Amino acid sequence: MLGHHYTHSFLETAIASVNAGCNLELSYGMRNNVFTHISQALAMGNITLQMLRDRVRPLFYTRMRLGEFDPPAMNPYSSLDLSVVQSPEHRNLSLEAAVKSFVLLKNVRGTLPLRARDLSGQHLAVVGPFADNPRVLFGDYAPVPEPQYIYTPRRGLEMLGANVSFTAGCSEPRCRRYARAELVKVVGAADVVLVCLGTGVDVETEAKDRSDLSLPGHQLELLQDAVQ
């Protein structure tokens, strides 16, 4: 709220937040954060003790239900590790969820879905800074999966048995340097072209907003060249 000039200090922010019903501050790495001023607000009479109890009660109720205060042996989740989380059963469930989820696409002339049986003898080109760069595929607050479980568009399509050619065009999402000649060469020899564009956390994330929704750098030029 300080950044939006709604309040002028952490103390004012703590008072306004608690009175409005906020009971949890998301902060880290700050010794002097907003809610450390609650005790001062309480002493000044800007927050009542009953209100503070009302705000704290659901927090500890939830933490108790989650088992945070139980011995580790009582928590069935404490024994789970990556061998369980990344098990074939869980990975297959993730795949099913991805297949059954929806995307907004204009399916001109029934191009989609791409099926392995239809790609035999087809030459695919996978291009763009998101085509084969695992690092940029995950957004803000994303998990950190084991590298062997990360499938880029290029890697996934190669598993279909199709003849796949690849060029990034630009090595990172900001796309400051664009290898147009290489892209035109790869795209020109293909029957099907998949252009993988976007932003990623290098370009936008929490506290790193943009003033417009345009593709960064030369990405729009890359797309236009691929279509042309």
UniProtKB/TrEMBL annotation:
GO BP of this protein: arabinan catabolic process; xylan catabolic process
Signal peptide: none
Gene name, Swiss-Prot/TrEMBL: Xyl2
Alphabetical keyword list: Glycosidase, Hydrolase
Highest taxon of the lineage: Eukaryota
Organism per entry: Toxostoma redivivum (California thrasher)
Domain (Glycoside hydrolase family 3 C-terminal): residue spans on this chain: 103-226
PANTHER family, alphabetized: FIBRONECTIN TYPE III-LIKE DOMAIN-CONTAINING PROTEIN (PTHR42721:SF42), SUGAR HYDROLASE-RELATED (PTHR42721)
GO molecular function terms attached to this record: alpha-L-arabinofuranosidase activity; xylan 1,4-beta-xylosidase activity
Bilayer-crossing regions: none
Entry protein name: XYL2 arabinofuranosidase
